[in-house]
Specification:
Elements (H helix, E strand, L loop, with lengths): L1 E4 L7 H16 L4 E4 L6 H9 L3 E3 L7 H4 L6 E4 L6 H9 L3 E4 L3 H15 L3 E5 L5 H8 L6 E3 L2 H4 L8 E5 L5 H15 L3 E2 L5 H14 L4 E5 L5 H13 L3 E4 L15 E6 L5 H17 L11
Parallel strand pairs: 1-12, 2-3, 2-4, 4-5, 6-7, 6-8, 8-9, 10-11, 10-12
The structure holds iron/sulfur cluster.
Iron/sulfur cluster (SF4) binds next to helix 1, helix 5 and helix 9.
């Protein structure tokens, strides 16, 4: 049995940049660096940065920052998902140093939504209710954009009104196209802007090159990560022996029965060190024997 690592796997540019910004700030100001919400949708990376001193706060805790910062000089990192303009305004009023880690791709979506909203368009964003990226984009439309996640959401749009349809950067192309057709059927002609992240689109397009050579696929990524869920669903559609895993302790020996090749991949929010941990664990178990007791239950 051999283990292969997907050559395309590893964090995207936006996530990588936010993590590098956090690490740089932590080196210079180890006690006073905060991030609004989990810096990345990956529990293991959040734990690692938490151990390094990064403090995660909720948007409604901003008023507490001066009390929480040990040296009274809080620095707040905005993660790759971005924030609504009100957050930046409040941070400025509080006199807090802001490190803007908003991904440039997300920034473009925010600007696009804002521009069309100011021109009088109704904005429909295909994506998930409450997802932090959506919260940030909606904030750029004075809270007027309509999230379209379910069929019922389409009914919230006004028929016969000039409408822009865009999407959360990490949804699937099929879902975006499907929802766009439903929106058109409700409101009439629409302006469609494909705001999918090209990094994610390319990953999905090239996925069969990798999944085709593995008998079992491990999709490593956080439980809250939309991108990991979509990657797992795409892998599973090609190979039913695909498992979404967060930590090596979840591996179950029965998954690998009769397999010659195990493929390890990860989403845009899965750091390389975590992928390596899976590869090394599997190789160690293959060389020295699998642990007596399996912890994971499988899916
Ligand atoms: S997945 Fe794309 S949009 Fe999201 S942070 Fe990464 S590069 Fe930016």
């Amino acid at each position: 049995m051999k283990v292969i690592l997907d050559p395309q796997a590893g964090t995207c540019g936006g996530v990588k940049r936010a993590i590098e910004l956090a690490e740089k700030e932590l080196t210079e100001h180890p006690k006073d660096v905060f991030v609004i919400g989990d810096i990345i949708h990956n529990e293991r990376e959040v734990e690692r940065l938490d151990r390094a001193g990064l403090k995660t706060i909720h948007r409604n805790e901003l008023e507490e920052l001066h009390r929480l910062a040990l040296n009274n000089r809080a620095r707040v990192l905005v993660r790759a998902h971005g924030e609504p303009p009100e957050t930046f305004k409040r941070l400025e009023e509080l006199g807090v140093e802001v490190i803007d880690g908003t991904c440039p791709v997300v920034n473009r979506s925010q600007e696009l939504a804002q521009k069309y909203q100011q021109e009088g368009y109704q904005i429909a964003i295909v994506g998930k209710h409450g997802h932090p990226e959506m919260v940030g984009i909606i904030g750029h439309t004075d809270q007027k954009a309509v999230v379209v996640q379910f069929k019922e959401d389409v009914e919230k749009l006004k028929p016969g009104v000039a409408t822009l349809v865009m999407c959360q950067t990490t949804v699937s192309q099929d879902w975006f196209d499907q929802m766009t057709r439903m929106i058109e059927a409700r409101v009439g002609e629409v302006v469609v802007k494909d705001t999918l992240c090209r990094f994610v689109v390319r990953r999905i397009r090239k996925l069969p090159n990798f999944t085709g050579v593995a008998d079992v696929i491990l999709v490593v990524g956080g439980l809250k990560s939309s991108n990991t869920k979509m990657l797992h669903a795409s892998c599973k559609a090609i190979n039913p022996r695909s498992y979404h895993v967060v930590s090596p302790e979840e591996l179950n020996r029965s998954w690998f029965e009769g397999a010659d090749t195990i493929g390890v991949t990860g989403s845009a929010s899965t750091p390389h060190w975590l992928l390596d941990e899976f590869v090394e664990t599997l190789e160690r178990w293959m060389a020295r024997g699998w642990p007596e007791r399996d912890v994971g239950d499988g899916e």
